[in-house]
Amino acid sequence: MVPATRRPRVLLVTPGPLDGRDGTDIALASAVAEVMTEADFVWFARRPRRSGPSPVVGGRPVPVYSRDGLAHGRQRLQVALRSVPLARGADLAHVVMTIGPGYPRFSRVWPRLIGGTPVLHTVPGVAEPDLLHRARPLGTTVALSDVTARQLGGAGFGDVAVVLPMIRLDRWPLVPRPVDGPPTVLVTGHHDPLGGASDAIRAAAVAVRAGARMRLLLALRGRPGQDVPALERGLRERAAREGLFGTDVLGRVDDVQGLLAASDVLLFLPRDLGGKADIPLTVLEALATGRPVILSDLPEFAVLRDAVLRTPPGDAHRAGHLLRQLLDRPWWWQSLAEQGRATVRRDFTPERFRARYAALYRRLLP
Predict the structure, then answer these.
(1) Rg over CA atoms, the chain
(2) What is 184-347's CATH topology?
(3) Taking the model in full, what pTM does it have?
(4) Which CATH architecture has domain 9-166+349-364?
């Protein structure tokens, strides 16, 4: 039992440094550390350290050497090795990690090395369902959607809890719709065919040919091993062939808040999430800002209900006509903007997030 005279020691395991580059793994782990103030966290910190606030107030940072703050193979190996003795000395190990190609081996080896320390594993997403046939649960498992919870449960992960992400509305205030210039349509996702960028370009072209005026802005994240500059050139060329001249491809953006505030609509049209979070935080941030969202109708997004507009995956024609109608109907835009923020206020609160994790911590702590 944890003595009443001290706070429980929790090892927070992320694939790379917690103060590294953004990503859902990092954002969820930081949110846990923020709300679970009764725990004393041990976490992995970037070295050399960059200026800026610490993602964890107090606690103990453990260095992981990373020049760019990303979780490359070397950083993942550092975390895996350094976490073993740290987990042995902790009351609880909380792993926040997508199930990707390296997870099956990690799941077979790591739990054997850390002794009897209880483990809580938050799964932001699953890169490929086939990985689950070779994977093992680390301990008690948390998913972000009912779909993934059922998928994990069917693969032998037991009774998987569902905890929705949190959004702090005080940090993501409602912003009026821009009034200057043509509307800006922001596209997020990935460059590859299933990632949604090409379908978004095709949808925007359908909308423009139907009479819509817009500026298209793509903010995309590369996947490991991709030639991102070449992929960005290819998307610009595709947009030009569709008649969408002046399309911007920005790549990774640090000021997501400013980008959403300057946009009118978020377009996210993946055919497959491919390891991206079941509920991408950018979508929730757009809804909190008061930006209507058009999404592929993937089952992971069911929790958003009528707060977003849905289109069948790969159906650029349908997505384009939804986009044109939304841009041409201010009353519809306003209604969706209000409904989106209300959904975030109701379902994605820090209070609900904390309550669910506090209950899990109480159950697992010795």
Answers:
(1) 21
(2) Rossmann fold (3.40.50)
(3) 0.93
(4) 3-Layer(aba) Sandwich (3.40)
Measured at the CA of 58, the angle between CA 52 and CA 59, to 5 degrees, comes to 115
Q: What is the pLDDT of residues 14-29, one digit of tens each?
A: 998 888 766 889 999 9
Question: Please, what's the largest Cα pairwise distance for the chain?
Answer: 68
- Give CA 361 to chain center in angstroms: 23
* Cα–Cα distance list, 122 to 161, 204, 252 (Å): 9, 36, 25
Query: What are the pLDDT digits (tens) for 104-137?
Result: 999 999 999 999 999 999 999 998 889 999 999 9
Helix pair 281-289, 330-347: axis angle to 10 deg: 120
Range list of H helices, the chain: 24-35, 73-88, 103-113, 146-152, 197-209, 228-241, 256-261, 281-289, 316-328, 330-347, 350-364
Q: Do domains 9-166+349-364 and 184-347 have the same CATH topology?
A: yes
Cα 135 to Cα 277: distance, rounded to the nearest angstrom: 19
Q: Which residue has the tokens 């509920």?
A: 279
